[in-house]
Amino acid sequence: MQEENTGEIDFRRYWAVVVKRRYLAISVALAVLSIVTLGSFLWPRTYQASSTVFIERSTLIDPLVKDSGVSDSMEERLRFLKNALTSRNIIERVMKKLDLDAKAKNDAQYENTISDIIKNLKVNIDASRGRWSANLFEVSYRGRDPRAVKDIVNTLVGEYIEENVGYQRTQAAEAYDFVQAQLLEYRKKLDDSDSEIRAFKEKHPGAVTDAGASSAMKADVIESRIEDTKIGLKELSRKRENLQKQLAAEGPFLKEGFQARLNELNNQLIMLSARYTDDYPEIKKVKKEIEELKKQPVKAQPTGAPNPVYQQLRQDLIEADNEVEALRAKSEELAMQKRQAQGMLQNMPKAQEEWARLQRDRNIYQKMYDDLMQKLENAGASKDLELANKAGNFRVVDAAVLPTIPVKPNTVLMIALGIVLGISSGVATVLGLDHFTHSFKDENSIEEKFGLPVLATIPTVVTEADRAASKRLDTRVFVAAGAYFVLILLLLANEFLYRYLNVKTFNF
Predict the structure, then answer these.
(1) Which of 14, 17, 79, 191 is the 20 to 30 A CA-CA neighbour of 264?
(2) How far apart are CA 234 and CA 375, in angstroms?
(3) For helices 146-203 and 217-249, what crossing angle results, to 10°?
């Protein structure tokens, strides 16, 4: 009653309760401590392995690859590194190399294995040294089997490096073959043009052949631009074919989430519509993608999350189509200008007009041939660098090693937590029992209950023998509990040294 009136906590009374039921408090504390400690060792171990890869983009390759038809795929692939590393194609190749596919008894287990690998795989990118000039990325994976964790990380990194290097080499070889074919074509045109000029001179030896050259200068420039446009269209067509092949190898969705993708597009459309008009290009693109998703039959609609690699390839293909349309429009405009320029030459004598045409064609072919020769040299150098693995230098800085210390559970933290929980549980148990026990604690509680004064109390009679027996029992209990607690502390120290200093003093 005094506590309620004064608002103060009688710590002495609570301590007396704990001392009175000390055996129960010690038993509960040691039981909770034992359960938490044992649980920290019975908890399934989770190990983590990681590998750090250094990618250096050579400064020599940029001027060599420029205008040679080689796409700058290194930057594109680095931007989508996380998606590439977790793509289904690479994961399946890793599973096949490690025989994980053979361990799957059915399709459901096979899909679950892929999902677990993707879920426990993390990629951290460090591009702080410059924009793609030098890059570090770390691949880490968590699992129950330490050897499998190490093998998955190293195999995954190896597959990714092999895929990127192979992709660059293929691109460089295709670019070299393409430029070489163009060069042979214009070499033939140049030879044919020289033959026509020789035939014209033999047929018209006295013709004034320089009069029409200056008048046809504008037509020369237009014709040169037309030829440049044709080359650009051919290069873009080849790029579109490569993108279409890559797009065909990827699925639009990973596993699940068609409705989630549709909702995401609708939300994106709402946000864009609040800021821009319907003619905004991004709004048109989002609406087009929503329409394409809705056109799919209900049974054919995928139930998986959108494949980011597929979406990026599709965006690249759309951009390539737009570039093709722009070049075609430019080609039509140049064709119209060419017709206008040719109309201005209609009044020239036929011989002069023919000579001007021959000179114009010959100059154009010579210019294109010289340009292609330079491009061929660049593409050849690019091809040689790729074959020497110098265009994109992948180097494993730190390969994954066999992990010996699990990342989960943290036995040091759990044992320390068990000590705190054990002491708290022991004290809380005896105080709770004392609070919910309805027996009278002292004369004050009797007076409060019945409203009558207590005339006398009979104290507990404790003899010397009782005190000696109680003291002996306390000694045995305290020694046993203390020894057990010291054992837990030694175990805690052992785990601390092993986890943080990699020193194992003894094994249990």
Answers:
(1) 79
(2) 15
(3) 150
Which 3 state secondary structure label does DSSP give 91?
Answer: helix
Q: Which residues pair with 47 in a beta bridge?
A: 143
**CB of 113 within 8 A of CB of 95?**
yes
Q: How far separated are the first and last CA of the chain, in Å rounded?
A: 52
Those residues with Cβ within 8 angstroms of residue 108's Cβ, 6 or more apart along the chain or in another chain: none
381-399 per-position pLDDT tens digit: 666 655 555 445 667 888 8
Q: Measure the CA–CA gap between 431 and 131, rounded to whole angstroms.
A: 64
Using DSSP, state whether 58 is helix, strand or coil.
Answer: coil
Distance CA 91, CA 156 (A): 7
**Could you read off the pLDDT of 156-187 as tens digits, one per residue?**
888 887 777 665 666 666 777 777 888 888 88
Residue 216 tokens read as 């046809």
Contact 376, 176 (CB under 8 A): yes
Pairing of strands 121-126, 392-398: unpaired
29: pLDDT strictly greater than 50 = yes
Say if CB 183 and CB 376 are below 8 A apart. yes
Q: Is 122 helix (H, G, I), strand (E, B) or coil?
A: strand
Question: Which of 40, 46, 42 has the alpha carbon at shortest distance from 145?
Answer: 46
Question: Do the Cβ atoms of 94 and 155 come closer than 8 Å?
Answer: yes
How far apart are the C-alpha atoms of 402 and 499, rounded to whole Å?
15
pLDDT > 60? residue 78: no
Rounded to 10 degrees, the C-alpha dihedral 226/230/233/237 comes to 170
Tens digit of pLDDT for each residue in 188-206? 888 888 888 888 777 766 5
Classify residue 46 by its DSSP letter.
B
Three-state DSSP at 54 gives: strand
Q: Cβ–Cβ contacts within 10 Å for residue 19, how many?
A: 10
Per-residue burial over 408-446, b = 16 or more CB atoms within 10 Å of its CB, e = otherwise: ebebbebbeebbebbbebbbebbeeebeeeeeeeeeeee
CB within 8 A of 120, min separation 6: which ones?
141, 142, 143
What gap in Å lies between CA 136 and CA 123, rounded to an integer? Answer: 11
Q: Which residues contact 142 (CB under 8 A, 6 or more apart)?
A: 46, 47, 48, 120, 149, 407
Q: Which tokens hold the place of 36?
A: 């938490």
Q: What is the DSSP letter of 407?
A: S
Q: Are 407 and 149 in contact (CB under 8 A)?
A: no
Instruction: Report the distance separating Cα 168 and Cα 376, nearest Å.
Output: 17
Q: Are 331 and 275 in contact (CB under 8 A)?
A: no
Q: Are 368 and 227 in contact (CB under 8 A)?
A: yes
Q: Please tell me whether the peptide bond between 252 and the residue prior to it is cis, using omega within 30 degrees of 0.
A: no
